[in-house]
Every structure is written in C-alpha cells, then in structure tokens.
Amino acid sequence: MADVAQLAGVSSQTVSRVSNGFPGVTEDTRRQVLAAMRELGYRPNSAARALRRGEFRTLGVITFSLSTMGNIRTLEAIATSAAGHGYAVTLLPVAVPTQDEVNGAFSRLGELAVDAVIVIMEIHLLDAATVSLPPGVQVVVADSDAGDRYTVVDTDQAGGARDAVRHLLDLGHETVWHLAGPQDSFAAQRRANAWRTTLTEAGRTPPPPVRGDWSARSGYRAGLLLADEPGCTAVFAANDQMALGLLRALHERGRRVPDDVSVVGFDDIPESASFLPPLTTVHQDFAEVGRLCVEGVLSKMRDGSGGGSTGGEHGTTLVPTRLVVRRSTAPRGR
Hints:
The structure is a single chain. This protein is α/β, with parallel strands linked by helices. The protein has helices at about 1-10, 10-20, 25-40, 45-55, 70-85, 100-110, 155-170, 185-200, 215-225, 240-250, 285-305, and strands at about 60-65, 90-95, 115-120, 140, 150-155, 175-180, 210, 235, 260-265, 280-285, 315-320, 320-325. The strands form 2 sheets. It has a 6-stranded parallel β-sheet with strand order 2-1-3-4-5-11, with helices on both faces. A 6-stranded mixed β-sheet has the order 7-6-8-9-10-12, sandwiched between helices. It is elongated, with a radius of gyration of 25 Å.
C-alpha cells in the first residue's frame, strides 16, 4: 500500500479509501490510485481486511441436495442477493443428513471463514430429535417446518396447492388425483396435505395419491398408472418435472391433455411454458425466497440475535405463490 501511495503521490489512507470503496476521494485521485495499483500489481489483502473489520463478507450455504430444481433455484437466488449486498457465497453440500454431518458442515464453514449460514433443508431433518443446528451461529433456514426454533423462509406451499386443486374443481372435475413428491420432503407433505384438505372441504373423496421422487422419470412411471384409471380426469403434480413425465405417459396411452385429462404442476420452471401442451402450474418466487434469506441472516448479524424482515429470532415467513394458467387444463369433457 505504501508503494502504491508513493507512485500515485497520495497518502496511504487515500489508497485504503480507494481499495475499500469509501467516499471522499475525487474521481481523478481514484483513477490515479487505480492506475498505480495496476502498474504495481497490487491487490488488497482480503484476509487482513477481514481480521481488521471482524467480518469476512461471506455467507455459508449448507444444502442436502443439489438434484432438485427448487434447491438449485433457491441457491441461485441466494447467491444473487448476497452479491447485491457485497457478499460472496461458500457452498457446502452435505451427503448424509445426520447430526454429525450437520455439525461437521458448520465446523468446515467456520474454517472457511464465513459470517453466517443459510441452510436449504428440504427434508424433515430439523424436526427430528437427533438433529439440531449448533448454538451461537447466525442461521436462516429455507424450506423447513422448524419455525418454532429457527428463522425460516419458505414458499406458501399449502396456498399454492389449494389454488391448483380449486382451479381443477372449478373446471368441473369431480375430483383431483395427486402425483406426490417424496415422503421425507417438507414441501411435498405440505402440498399433499393441502390437496387432501381442499378436496375434503369441497365434499370430494381424495383418491389414493401416487408418489414420485421429483424426477420426470418417476412422473412417467406414475403417469402409466394414472392413465389406466378411467375416473382420472384431473391431476395435480407436486412439481413440473414430474408433470413432464406424466404428460409423456398420458400421450403414450392415448389420453389427451387437456381434452381427457387436465394437468397442473408446481414450480413454474422456465421450460414449463414449452411443454406440450404448455403447463398450467403454480409459480414460486425463488428470487424473493433468496432475498429474504439473505436479508434475514444479515439482519441477525447486525443486531446479534434475529429480527428484520423474516420476523424475529424465530418464526416462518411465507412467500406467496400464484397460479399460471396455460393450455394443460380445460373444463371436464371439453
């Protein structure tokens, strides 16, 4: 820094202000300092800066799966929002969701120097007595059912599922079959519970659900079974990828969509508008989930406990969904 200051003809304090992006430096002086940095090959020492400030400008993200579209898009939204606040993201996938693995992940993130942690936890892990997050760490959890103990941000899974089922009932379908997600998924359970409750409240008997694993392949297998159900005229699939496999199976079995069977998905992935036919689906605002996760954990860092837009030290903030109607749904018997 002293060499840069000498070459630029300014003080070391001015070099520090330029390298840290602080105001109070004229544009000509800033360009002069940057030119000297380039000439000398100077780069600010981020480790020394972190020790001096007491923060690393990095958020850790722990996730138990990168195979689902929801987790990938949530991670993307967190990284984008963090960058907007001047933070980098360190990702740590955890292969086996156990207490030892969770504790190990937090230890490794500590060694990697992060300021706080966001956990993307789709499965029912925080609800189990064997697993908890280490105390004293500023944490926000995405997609969980543990708002009584942690700050949680999630999509309104139940509200989106209700809208999907009501849309199909309003089209005149006697009942709605459900292509459900994995049993250990919080989101899948919320969507299935809302599907069942909405049908019951409408005076309809819920058919037995058919279960998949979020993949298009599992949706195809389930679709072969549903295609053989003569009373199946409407299906609510728990995600768009399974709906894609379902559409293929129905087509192969000669069941036309939406003339014979109406289909609604969940997620509104970018490709859903290009399905054949374009898929009616529930839109999730992953960008807002990511933003709230980042703002929530930054708020915790500022006040040392919790608070901020995610509603205090613990509790759940639900991000609204909206139904996107396309051509995969139609009135019964059209």
